[in-house]
Amino acid sequence: MNALAMIDGVGRTFGTGRQAVVALHDATGTINSEDRIALVGRSGSGKSTLIWLLAGLDSPTRGTVTWPALGHPRGDPFLVGTVFQALSLVPTLTAIENVALPLVLHDVRRDEAHDAAMSALDLVGLAGVARQLPDELSGGQSQRVAVARVLACHPRLILADEPTGRIDHDAARGVLDALWAAADEVSAGLVVASHDPLVYERFPQRWRIRDGRVSVDGAPQ
Ligand code: ADP
Ligand code: MG
Predict the structure, then answer these.
(1) 46 ligand 1 Cβ < 6 A
(2) Whose C-alpha lies nearest to ligand 1, atom 15?
(3) What is d(CA 143, CA 99) in angstroms, rounded to the nearest whole number?
(4) Which domains does the chain have, with CATH numbers?
(5) Residue whose C-alpha is closest to residue 31's, from 3, 2, 60
(6) Closest Cα to atom 22 of ligand 1
(7) How far is the C-alpha of 146 from the C-alpha of 170, rounded, in Å?
(8) What is the pTM of this model?
(9) What is the per-residue pLDDT across 19-75, written as a single tens digit (0 to 9) for each?
C-alpha cells in the first residue's frame, strides 16, 4: 500500500538564535489510507505544527515530509482536506454555498458542485440546514459543515486540528462522527489533533506528542 504521508526525522524550529522555539523534534511516522489516528498532546506540544506540515502548508527545518501516494498536495483540497479549530465558514454564504465553494473555485460546474455539496451535507446529517447562514447554526453544526466542505472534494487524507475545541461534549461527538463518516465514505486516512479525552478514546491509533516529541501509543517511533 502506498503511504499517503510519511514524515522522516522531521523537525520544525520557529525563529533563530535565542528566540528559537523547537516545536517538533525528530518525528517519524507513516499515514496510510485506512488509518484513523488521534494526535494527542497538551496545548503547545506541537500538534498544529505537525498538522500544517502534513497538509503541505509548511516546510520542516529538518528531515522530510513526503506524500508517496499524493505527489505534492500543498493546499490542494482534492488531495488533503483540513478542518481547523476556528469556525471558518464564509458568513455571507449559506451552508451549501460554503460547502460548494472550494469546488466552484476549482472550476467544477455549478450544478455538479451543488450536488456534491448536498451529498456531503447529507452525509454529516445537515441536509436540513443547507439554506441557512452560518450565524443560524450551532458551533457543532458549523464544524460539521466544515467537515462536509472537506468531504465534497473527496480528499485522500483528512486532517483536523482541534475540531472539537470550541464546542460542548455532545456536539463534539457529532463532529467526530462526521469526520469518521467522511473518511469512510471516500476511503481517506484521518488524523485528528486534540487534547480532548473523547478524541483519543475514540481512535484506534494514537500518536502522542509531548514537547515536540512524537511517540506511538507511548513507544518512541
Ligand atoms: P499545539 O497545536 O499542540 O498547541 P503548536 O504546534 O501550535 O502546539 O506549537 C508548538 C510550539 O511552537 C509552541 O511553543 C508554540 O508557541 C510554537 N510556535 C508555533 N507556531 C509558531 C510560530 N509561527 N512562531 C513561533 N513559535 C511558534
Ligand atoms: Mg494547536
Answers:
(1) yes
(2) 44
(3) 11
(4) 34-57+71-220 (3.40.50.300)
(5) 3
(6) 14
(7) 17
(8) 0.95
(9) 999 999 999 999 999 999 999 999 999 999 999 999 999 999 999 999 999 998 988
